[in-house]
Amino acid sequence: MALSRLGHQRFQSHPRLRPVHHRAARRRPAAHPTRDQLIATGFHRCNVTTNEDGVIEEEVAAIYAKDRVDTTSAVWLGLTVGCATCHDHKFDPIKQTDFYSLAAFFRNTTQKTLDGNIFDPGPVITVRAKEDDALWSQLREEEQSVRAALETAEHTAQAGFENWLNNGAYRQTNIDRLDDSAVLSVDFAHSRNLASSKSATVEVARHGRAAAWVGELGLIELAGAPSITADNPFTLSLSFYLSEEKYGGPLISRTDPANKNRGWALSIDDQRPSFVITGEGNDKLGLRAEKPAAFRRGEWNHVAVTYDGSLTRAGIQLYVNSQPVPGETVANALPSLTGSVSNEAPLWIGAMDKSHLDGLGVSDLQVLNRVASE
């Protein structure tokens, strides 16, 4: 009993082990953390993650939190706290309530439970070189002035817009939306560049517009389609129609299966549009919508992708029904790409390699050799 009391008294009086209750310990983190502080949090991103089908996300999230508590305590406190996962030890400075209080802290991360099989699941930050700090600060100041000018323009432009709308001037507007940047514009109502090698059918005014419809064999080839390369900007734009029960598969592609699918493809996967560029050695650069898109089932929808030729994932932007959608890296894709993506393969509608999408209707197909604005 004497030893027990002595051990308890020593713990309570030890300055490093005594529980801390003073006010400073309860201060909230800084509202504007420094770059070094944000980088330091990357320590807690080194845990094992999963994207396996069938896992229970709540269970995996609890495992992540326990892993972070165990690792943080071992590395920064020099304590093994695993026992406190289940119960208290009489002389252990970490109680079970302390363990789960710390675990609750790590349950506040915005990191997704499933990592999508990508190498850098969010949240991530861009770390600039120190020699760019001055330029960064300058651009931030310029950004504030530009945003202020935009707000002013937004409020002062309304009167001119109302006048333009009321006097009917918009009826005389005649804008060539493609101008001389269009490298491909397919009018399916009068198209002569559809190859009939497999199953090409062109129907006019089905569901209200001229379109190419993928038949039972699921292959429509566009003969003589221009080549687009990964080091030049371009925009792909098309409208598509799918029945309510079908929402997944390739929309348009130009890939070479004999060369590890070098090329590019625009697809829908689980109601998420995705765009992938494949270079030499099957290296990929790609983006897919972060969340399922709000496609109108059984109606025409529009999807577009812009690419700025930078050979980086950041250069890709997806649009659904004219609205930009947040994107995430596709599985096994890289942040940047090297090598050519050019190939001699045909351009296919509703097909890629051995897969195809029956019942797909495509209309208003356009390829521009520039990044189209929103």
Quick synopsis:
The chain is an alpha+beta fold and 374 residues long. It is built from 6 helices and 18 strands.
Describe the structure.
α3 packs across α4. 23% of the residues are buried. The strands form 3 sheets. Strands 1, 3, 4, 6, 11, 12, 13 and 18 form an 8-stranded antiparallel sheet that branches. The protein has an 8-stranded antiparallel sheet with strand order 2-5-15-7-8-9-10-14, with no helix packed on it. By secondary structure, the chain is of the alpha+beta class. It folds into 3 domains: 105 residues, no CATH class; 42 residues; 187 residues, Sandwich (Jelly Rolls), CATH 2.60.120.200. The chain is built from 6 helices and 18 strands. The chain is globular and about 80 Å long. Helices cover 22% and strands 25% of the residues. The N and C termini lie far apart (77 Å). A hairpin with a 2-residue loop joins β12 and β13. The N terminus is likely disordered.
What is the name of the CATH class of the largest domain?
A: Mainly Beta
Q: Return the domain count.
A: 3
If you consult CATH, what is the topology of the largest domain? Jelly Rolls
As residue ranges, the low-confidence spans are 1-27, 195-202
Indicate the CATH architecture of the largest domain. Sandwich
Shape: globular
Query: What is the ordering of alpha helices and beta strands?
Result: HHHHHHEEEEEEEEEEEEEEEEEE
Strand content: 25-35%
Radius of gyration (CA) equals 28 Å
Question: In this structure, how is the largest beta sheet organized?
Answer: 8 strands, antiparallel
The computed structural class is: alpha+beta
Instruction: Output mean pLDDT.
Output: 78
**Distance between the ends:** 77 Å
Number of helices: 6
What's the count of strands?
18
Helix share bin: 10-25%
